[in-house]
Amino acid sequence: MGLSAVTVLGVDRPGVIAAVTGSLAECGANIQDSTMTLLGGHVAMMLLVSGDLDPAELRKRLGAPDLVVTASAIDARRHFCDDGGGPEGVGYVLTVHGPDRPGIISAISAVLAADGGNITGMSTRLTGRLYVLIADVDLPKDVDVAALMRRLAAVGASLDSQITFRPVEPDLL
Amino acid sequence: MKGTPRQVLGAPHPVLSAMAEPVDPTAPEVVAAAADLLATLRNEPATAGLAAPQIGLSWRLIAFDAGRHPKARSRAGELVVANPRLAGAAHWNEGREGCASVAGLSADVPRATRITVHGHLPGTGEAVTIEADAFEARCIQHQLDHLDGLLFLDRVPGVLSLHTSLHSCDA
Questions:
Q1: If pLDDT is split at 50, 70 and 90, which confidence band does A75 have?
Q2: Given Cys at both, which of A53, A168, B112, B159 links A57, Cβ 3.0 to 4.6 Å?
Q3: Do residues B60 and B23 touch, judged by C-beta distance below 8 A?
Q4: Residue B67: which of B82, B83, B78, B52 has the closest Cα?
Q5: CA angle A158-A163-A167, nearest 5°?
Q6: Domain extent for B64
Q7: Is the ipTM of this structure higher than 0.85?
Q8: Domain count, chain B
Q9: Residues on chain A touching B152 (C-beta within 8 angstroms)
């Protein structure tokens, strides 16, 4: 059974998700991981689906006049971060907020990448003049976090932005 | 003293990211600022609290009135506190909050649901202790963060906790 990565983009309206997932169900595809959000009034979905249909057939079945659909076959890998991130890493949450300008994400992500930091989730929002970035970050255990925070603070200052970087504290119950 | 409503500043603004200065609660300019802060709060019916930096004053003054909010349990009423200090916090819980200085965003933020705050009343300078819980405790902690240059965005526990949805009442 093959695995496909499906993306759906279109103007948001009630029923988009029902239509997409209904089409997937009708053709026997099983949704594994998925995420959906609104980007500036557009619905954006990314789905990992398993089934016997090839990607071209999936695109055809999901096609709608107001939706842009892509589908690609991918390898069935369930663990993408075996070195540094994942269960061996340490989780942090990064918050950046300040005036909007080009290059904020690239500047911040470059600092994290230089230390082997892996951004496992990210959301950015522009509201008025305020640009907000929240990211979940996995760091290798041997990273000098204090030094990393100093570098992040310096980049934040150069962007006139405020940065907080704090550990995730999961409670195992 | 009757205050004058002022404009609520929106982020990004330098005063919202600065550590506010302690004040003399008996100083006439502080009493006037407290009256303005309260007048501004009354002028923002969807907002349960404000801190002086939100009206452009980097002073340690907060105003709140959580009594109208349906999630409120303790209700200290309409109050302005100078130099508020968190003395105790317990029973943490997540709740969705927004801010009059951050339009269009809200987030699920962990806060203590039972707190003790010490401070002084503007004018007389009388020491005051506030025992708050539930929504009122969240509201006060949100205002205390403003005095330290923090927004609720700085306490978001993860990507999925940030929302663009509207909120029923700003903390």
A1: confident
A2: A53
A3: yes
A4: B78
A5: 145
A6: 14-163
A7: yes
A8: 1
A9: none
| CATH architecture of the domain formed by A86-167 | 2-Layer Sandwich (3.30)
d(CA B5, CA B41): 8
Q: Is residue B65 part of a domain?
A: yes
Rounded Cα gap, residues B46 and B61, in angstroms: 20
B11 touches chain A (CB under 8 A): yes
Residue B24 lies in a domain: yes
- The residue of chain A nearest to residue B153, with distances taken between CA atoms, is A95
Interface test with A, best of B17, B93, B153 (most A CBs within 10 A): B153
**The pLDDT of residue A161 is above 80:** yes
What pLDDT was estimated at residue A109?
Answer: 97
Tell me if B158 and A130 make a contact (CB, 8 A cut-off). Answer: no
SS3 B62: strand
Residues 70-129 of B with CB under 8 A from A: 102-105
B11/A97 touch (CB, cutoff 8 Å), yes or no: yes
Burial tier of A19 (Cβ tally within 10 Å: 0-12, 13-18, 19+): middle
In a domain, B118, yes or no: yes
pTM: 0.90
Task: Give the residue from chain B lying closest to A93, CA to CA.
Answer: B158
Domain A2-74: CATH superfamily is: ACT domain (3.30.70.260)
| Residue A41 pLDDT | 86
